């Protein structure tokens, strides 16, 4: 079994990472491994931010670390909120406020197409393995469902033909940006 630290304090992401990676991996939350606090995301791309998080946590703990940087890109908003998805409505990160702002900014917009993007980076002693995954869909006119986290209730998945907020965990993981990125990453590391 491969032992890796998850460089995230986001409980929603952490559960999905554990479920998607499955039995071959022992995923240890960074706080449990002894890393406290947050890593500042100063990069301009999902890859840069994932690398900053994985490298910082791995070097601090002397263990392989896996980071996920992800977000929602809305076509009509020029790709926003993008790398700022977690902080769309300002600091501190508040998912309900972010969804409310997105709905407000999408009022009256016809083309509601959007995609989730995820970049995962595994960092170990200077070695970097990375992968990206995408989930295509559109932004709903109102929240639908209570599952998942973040923008899930506002995202209608083209793959599932329903919102991520209404999908079971298994359904979402099978088609999500995070599921796709992590499965590609594991293929690369095998
Ligand atoms: P970061 O990767 O920590 O910068 O934050 C990513 C942000 O994007 C999260 O806080 C969510 O708002 C959003 N996000 C990323 N992945 C998902 C997802 O699977 N569902 C819903 N929202 C997501």
Can you offer a commentary on this structure?
The chain is 33% helix and 26% strand. With 190 residues, it is α/β, with parallel strands linked by helices. It has one domain: Maf protein. It has a 7-stranded mixed β-sheet. The chain is globular, with a radius of gyration of 16 Å. The two termini are 12 Å apart. The protein binds inosinic acid.
Protein topology:
Layout: E1 2-6, H1 11-21, E2 25-29, H2 30-33, H3 46-61, E3 65-74, H4 95-105, E4 113-124, E5 127-139, E6 155-157, E7 162-163, H5 169-175, H6 177-189
Parallel strand pairs: 1-2, 1-3
Antiparallel strand pairs: 3-4, 4-5, 5-6, 6-7
Helix pairs in contact: 1-6, 5-6
The structure holds inosinic acid.
- Strand tally is 7
Cofactors, ions and other ligands in the entry? inosinic acid
> Helical region count?
6
Secondary-structure-based class equals: alpha/beta
Order of helices and strands: EHEHHEHEEEEHH
Please identify the top-level CATH class. Alpha Beta
């Amino acid at each position: 079994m491969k032992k890796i630290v998850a460089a995230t304090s986001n409980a929603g992401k952490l559960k999905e990472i554990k479920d998607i990676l499955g039995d071959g991996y022992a995923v240890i939350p960074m706080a449990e491994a002894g890393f406290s606090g947050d890593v500042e995301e100063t990069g301009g791309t999902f890859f840069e931010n994932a690398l900053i998080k994985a490298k910082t946590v791995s070097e601090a703990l002397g263990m392989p670390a896996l980071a996920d940087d992800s977000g929602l890109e809305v076509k009509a908003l020029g790709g926003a909120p993008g790398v700022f998805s977690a902080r769309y409505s300002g600091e501190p990160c508040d998912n309900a406020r972010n969804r409310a702002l997105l709905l407000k900014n999408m009022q009256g917009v016809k083309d509601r197409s959007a995609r989730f993007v995820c970049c995962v980076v595994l960092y170990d002693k200077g070695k970097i393995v990375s992968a990206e995954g995408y989930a295509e869909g559109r932004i709903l006119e109102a929240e639908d469902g209570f599952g998942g986290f973040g923008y899930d209730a506002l995202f209608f998945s083209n793959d599932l033909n329903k919102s991520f907020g209404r999908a079971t965990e298994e359904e979402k993981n099978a088609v999500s940006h995070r599921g796709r990125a992590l499965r590609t990453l594991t293929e690369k590391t095998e």
